[in-house]
Design brief:
Farnesyl Diphosphate Synthase, 6 strands, two-stranded antiparallel sheet, 16 helices, 66% helix, two-stranded antiparallel ribbon
Length: 403
């Protein structure tokens, strides 16, 4: 399937190599056609990524590879040969992914009538920023898989972290985890440097830098709340959604859109219009992430199965189940949520209970409602039509995706 390249010259097309003639264009059809999640439908029913994501991936992948290859070469000059750790970090970043946040930087820039090349370093930086957050999240959640391969702390701890006279040496659990955190932070430093190297006037760079600092503060607080929530008193819907907004929602949609718009020098009313779209969609994105974390198949999501249930994550799914459960069902939830030694059969039983209590269907409905709010926010003359069309496709994809 060939589609228009939104970030290329007029008439240029991009091709999805996995498309078939019967594939429907991304973003077509009502949100009520949300596909069932992995485990309920065949993998081939997964929606195709919107053109904006395909185009940005084509643009960004070789540039990210070149950037990380150069950092890997520079590592050879260090007094301790950490080349294997640099190589593992490079490969972690280049495993794939949706490249959603970088694409949103360019769309926000276009919404503010900016020049694409001026926003491209920041778009690449935001992808490195996302990788940094994933590395830290993997370690804190004790996940062993990311995008179908070992997480960075597993690679460095069990495979190879340094080269000692031609022999690859693993760092062990503690040092491997510590190195993973440090290399994640290194990705963050590179990301900030790329954003601040944007070829725009200083005032715009400063606005972008301040926005990035605020977003990093929010996601850090959100992650702290997410880790601590299972230890505290039960949360209601408002508290659960606020944690999800801080942890993921703000930096997934609002931050990259506004970052691109700031680099373009967009007017305040354009920034407000983009925020009205991004805020509900960021929450919808996190709800779908939670659904995939509970019900997703590892072969599709590329992540370990049942991790969120073993961690006892206080997600909207868990909240809705606790609201409905009574008697033995409630005792089952309290007994098994957060029990790290659950075997696969017990995880399957807990999933079945969540479904029977209606938690999955309610969470899907709430994701739909939030995505509809985002789409309604696009009904404005402040956002150019070509940008609004692509953002609408992303809103649909957000709740239809299977990974």
């Amino acid at each position: 399937m060939s589609v228009h390249n939104p970030f290329g010259p007029p008439g240029e097309a991009i091709t999805d190599p996995n498309a078939t003639p019967s594939d429907r264009p991304p973003g077509h059809g009502p949100l009520s056609t949300l596909h069932e999640l992995p485990g309920s439908i065949p993998f081939e029913a997964a929606p195709k990524p919107p053109a904006a994501l395909l185009a940005f991936s084509q643009l960004a992948e070789p540039k990210l590879r070149e950037f990380l290859d150069q950092k890997r070469v520079e590592a050879r000059e260090l007094p301790v040969d950490l080349w294997p750790a640099f190589a593992a970090t490079r490969d972690y970043v280049l495993r794939g992914g949706k490249r959603l946040r970088g694409a949103l930087v360019l769309l926000g820039n276009e919404a503010g009538n900016g020049l694409r090349d001026a926003a491209l370093p920041a778009a690449l930086g935001v992808e490195l920023l996302h990788a940094y957050l994933l590395v830290h999240d993997d370690f804190m959640d004790r996940d062993e898989l990311r995008r179908g391969a070992p997480t960075l702390h597993i690679l460095l701890g069990e495979k190879a972290a340094l080269d000692v006279r031609g022999t690859l040496v693993a760092a062990g659990e503690h040092v491997g985890g510590s190195l993973a955190l440090l290399f994640g932070s290194l990705l963050q430093a590179w990301a900030i440097d790329l954003v601040l190297s944007s070829p725009v006037i200083p005032e715009r760079r400063l606005a972008a830098g301040r926005l990035l600092a605020r977003a990093l503060a929010e996601v850090t607080v959100g992650q702290a709340l997410d880790l601590a929530a299972p230890l505290g008193a039960p949360l209601g819907a408002e508290g659960t959604l606020e944690i999800e907004r801080l942890k993921t929602g703000s930096y997934t949609f609002e931050m990259p859109l506004l970052l691109g718009a700031h680099l373009a020098g967009a007017e305040p009313r354009v920034l407000e219009a983009l925020s009205r779209f991004a805020r509900p969609l960021g929450q919808a994105f996190q709800i779908v992430d939670d659904l995939l974390g509970v019900f997703g198949a590892p072969a599709v999501t590329g992540k370990s199965a049942g991790g969120d249930l073993r961690e006892g994550k206080r997600t909207l799914i868990v909240l809705r189940a606790l609201e409905e459960a009574r008697g033995e069902d409630l005792a089952h939830l309290h007994r098994d949520l957060g029990r790290r030694d659950m075997n696969d059969r017990e995880v399957d039983a807990l999933r079945a209970l969540l479904r029977r209590l209606g938690a999955e269907s309610r969470a899907k409905e709430e994701a739909h409602e939030l995505a509809e709010q985002a789409r309604a926010a696009l009904d404005t003359t402040l956002i150019p039509d070509q940008v609004a069309t692509q953002l609408e496709e992303l809103a649909v994809y957000t709740v239809e995706r299977t990974n």
